[in-house]
């Protein structure tokens, strides 16, 4: 069984936040596949179990807040007896420009509180991750104002113009998730990692 986790904060209040890009990607996948997420209080997650290419797969949306995401992930790994290497974590990344995707096999949290929690509770950084860029020229200026400004940025909603970009990138994220579940992650990396730029590119043009 493979596990895909979309990081974010639970509840309607946070639904449109930039920090919930991972949740948005999993919900978009669920809509495309006509899946229903069922709340599992004991697991602290809403989950959808389904078959893809003769293999059982699991999507999970933590019901914990972002900085406690690892608590949910640990319970999911234990309950379904999944090893971290069979897990893909989908989350927002302000180091990448809006509209970019990046897939990695391992690595640090990059300062992302949700990922820090997942790495700590999983006991390893040896799991796959799909990062959805939320950085913009606006953020390139915001980050110089300190941590409070960064927190305010990621917990604010996408603008109307940003939503148009997000509408284009979410289907790509859905495709990358499907490739992971179908044991074709290298193909996903070849498709979506090649066009990634850094936030420095935005700063140079701002």
Question: Would you mind describing this structure in some detail?
Answer:
This protein is α/β, with parallel strands linked by helices. It has one domain (2-205): Rossmann fold. Helix content is 41%, strand content 23%. The protein has eight helices and seven strands. The protein has helices at residues 21-32, 69-80, 113-122, 137-142, 147-154, 160-181, 185-192, 199-205; strands at residues 2-6, 38-40, 45-52, 55-62, 87-97, 101-104, 128-135. A seven-stranded mixed β-sheet has the order 2-3-4-1-5-7-6, sandwiched between helices. Strand 3 (45-52) and strand 4 form a beta hairpin. Helix 1 crosses helix 6 (160-181) and helix 2 runs parallel beside helix 3 (113-122). The longest helix has 22 residues, at 160-181. The radius of gyration is 16 Å and the shape is globular.
Give a concise summary.
This protein is an alpha/beta fold and 206 residues long.
What CATH first level would be assigned? Alpha Beta
What CATH architecture do you see? 3-Layer(aba) Sandwich
The CATH superfamily name is: Peptidyl-tRNA hydrolase
Could you tell me the CATH topology label: Rossmann fold
> Could you tell me how far the N terminus lies from the C terminus, measured between alpha carbons in angstroms?
45 Å
Please tell me what the overall shape is.
globular
Proportion of helical residues:
40-55%
> Helical region count?
8
Series of H and E elements? EHEEEHEEHEHHHHH
Radius of gyration (Å)? 16 Å
* Derived structural class: alpha/beta
Low-confidence stretches: 202-206
How many beta strands in the DSSP annotation?
Answer: 7
State the major sheet: 7 strands, mixed
Q: In what order do the strands lie side by side in the largest sheet? A: 2-3-4-1-5-7-6
